[in-house]
Amino acid sequence: MIEIEHLTKSFGRVQAVKDLSLTIPQGELFCFLGPNGAGKTTTIKLLCGLLKPTSGTIRIRGLDLKAEPAAVHRLIGYIPDTPYLYERLTPLEFFQFIGDLYQVPPAQVREARDKYFALFAMEDYAQTLIKDLSHGYRQRLIYAATFLHQPKVLFIDEPFIGLDPFSIRLIHDLLRQTARAGTTIFLTTHILAFAEQLADRIGIISGGSLSGLGTLAELKALSSVQGALEDVFLRLTRPEGN
Predict the structure, then answer these.
(1) How does pLDDT run across 109-143, given as a tens digit for each residue?
(2) Quick check: is 79 in a domain?
(3) How many whole angstroms separate alpha carbon 145 and alpha carbon 94?
(4) Residue pair 186/47 in contact by the 8 Å Cβ criterion
(5) Which helix (H) or strand (E) holds 175?
(6) Which residues have CB under 8 Å from 234's CB, separation 6+?
(7) In a domain, 16, yes or no
(8) Residue 98: inside a domain, yes or no?
(9) CA-CA distance, 6 to 4, in Å (whole number)?
(10) Do 140 and 134 form a contact (C-beta atoms < 8 A)?
């Protein structure tokens, strides 16, 4: 579960996130949508502890992020829109490094490696330097490594950037299965069709403030729009007077 209460983040005079309150239950796949600069990535970084809030509280599975950051970090996984990978390592070495970082037992690392390298068709690239991998295979590697410690809450910023149709379908299905198994997933995407297919609920942020929250049916009722999610999104995020 993710609980956010009156979360605010300011950068000087600019309020990137304004008094945001949300509760996301266990096992929900929650899509957070908004225009460029709306506050999506800032919110995810706050929830992962990469940024400190100006005010407000964040609790992950009942743990206060400010009071117990190490305990929270053991529970979560984070995939940014442009992940950093150690390019002089091979995927095999990077996977082992992540296992050591989270103190995953060696037998569990080997089992997870075999499972996820097969799932993401990475066996032939296990000994290739990461710097020589394509963008798509780098993305596959970061997903495999993130799932290694079996996070209870997963944050993903733009999960489908630069991926081919095979990888998109693979990750789409993996996220649905993971949520059904009880992992809470909080993701942002600009691809509204995927949000429409994936999300249990959708939050729409505009100018740092929440402008809509609910299922697609609830958002349609809120916006008085009976079209696709794109039409709802445009209605809820358009500037006043337009």
Answers:
(1) 999 999 999 999 999 999 999 999 988 889 899 99
(2) yes
(3) 8
(4) yes
(5) helix 165-180
(6) none
(7) yes
(8) no
(9) 7
(10) no
Helix axes 216-223, 229-237, angle to 10 degrees: 50
Quick count: other Cβ atoms within 10 Å of Cβ 134?
11
User: Alpha-carbon distance 155 to 173, whole Å?
Assistant: 16
DSSP letter at 68? -
| Amino acid present at 3 | E
- Domain interval for residue 63: 2-89+152-237
- How far apart CA 215 and CA 219 sit, in angstroms, is 6
Please write the tens of the pLDDT for every residue from 150-173.
999 999 998 887 788 888 888 889
Task: Write the CATH number for 232.
Answer: 3.40.50.300
**Residue type at 7 in one-letter notation:** L
Contact 40, 211 (CB under 8 A): no
Tell how many helices (H) and how many strands (E) occur in the chain.
9, 10
